[in-house]
What we know:
The chain is mostly helical. It is 68% helix and 0% strand. The relative contact order is 0.15.
Amino acid sequence: MADLLERFERIVRQAGSITEARSDPVGGSHPFDDRNIHSRIQGTSKKLFDDGHYASATFEAYKLLDKEVAGIAKISESGVKLMMKAFSEQSPLIKLTNVSTISEKDEQEGYKFIFSGSIMAIRNPRGHEYGVVDSPTECLDHLSLASLLLRRLERAKK
């Protein structure tokens, strides 16, 4: 019996070295590098991800996105209301395009809905509900979208 327990303990201790959620990957790159996760999101979410807190990693990234939009727009709103005001194609507080042609207005409107939809569908459940569980892949997908949106904001600021 003791022999079985020793074998089990050895297996459990080795399991930590083969999980995909590690800061220092064994024999490869970190999933954040593979997905080109934005450096600011890495700062808020990487440790949570590495510790297996995938829903929290997602929530923190989208709180960062929300605060970034509010800061650029210079308004104290948050969530969907913020996104709808900030990216309004009629009178945007943040211009992602020149908003002069139909195509540019459509792109501005599309991003308005992507920003507000990501807050509504991804951030809000993790902020208002308990027990939300994400897989590592779901989390990486969420963080990839947040990275795309942060990079789009950076392009607009230039």
